[in-house]
Amino acid sequence: MAVSRRIMALADAMHTAPCKIADVFGANPFFAERLLHSRGQRCLDGETLLDCIARHYGDAVAREFNECISVDAWEDAK
């Protein structure tokens, strides 16, 4: 089994390793928030996590993160 291509692409877009933004169940908001915090990219008052991701990495990355929350992080290696 290998890490999902979508999770790999998302991690690449966020300039990090897949384990920093996802667990076995898919993209993990807690992991992403912890990553952003470690980089000093904190959410502003009233801002959602997806808004914060969009502000730092773009709207497309935020949409992909939201979709990857329910994506299996593993796929069969082919």
Describe the structure.
Strands 1-4 form a two-stranded antiparallel ribbon. Strands 2-3 form a two-stranded antiparallel ribbon. Strand 2 (22-23) and strand 3 form a beta hairpin. 49% of the residues lie in helices and 10% in strands. The radius of gyration is 12 Å and the shape is elongated. The protein has 78 residues and is mainly alpha-helical. 22% of the residues are buried. The mean pLDDT is 93.
Defining key terms:
78 residues; mainly alpha; two-stranded antiparallel ribbon; two-stranded antiparallel sheet; 4 helices
What are the SSEs and their pairings?
Blueprint: E1 2-3, H1 5-13, E2 22-23, E3 26-27, H2 29-38, H3 49-57, H4 59-68, E4 74-75
